UniProtKB/TrEMBL annotation:
Keywords: Cytoplasm, Transferase. Pfam families: DsrE. This is tRNA 5-methylaminomethyl-2-thiouridine synthase. It is found in: Cytoplasm. SUPFAM superfamilies: DsrEFH-like. One of its GO terms (cellular component) is sulfurtransferase complex. NCBIfam families: PRK00207.1, sulf_tusD_dsrE. Its main location: cytoplasm. Signal peptide: none annotated.
Amino acid sequence: MLCKLHYTILVTGPAYGNQKSSSALQFTQALLNYGHYINAIFFYQDGVYNANSFTIYPSNEINLVQAWQKLAIEHQLSLHVCISAALRRGITNAEQALQLNLSGHNLPPAFNLSSLITLGESILTCDRFIQF
């Protein structure tokens, strides 16, 4: 009998340029297929680029931004994006864009700007913490 565990996933790699994000996505899908639970998925450092809706994708490649959103919607998962890392990299939601007097925003609806406190709380309540 397989024990069902609670996982927190940390993604530190961009949507493209290395395997971190796609590996994290595939790993998370496998966990869900085996019946495990995902406490949260947190995007940090260059991982916040996975939450940039302005990224253009070649037609022969997987659109990782859409893939993360689809996974989150299908399984009711929380996609957290480090607010400090996101703002440094030009990724913002409508509220932050208004506060900072920016001309637009590019954070997709399935993603939420969060603090490192959110990551810490999720780590404290999970059985396994996996970083990509």
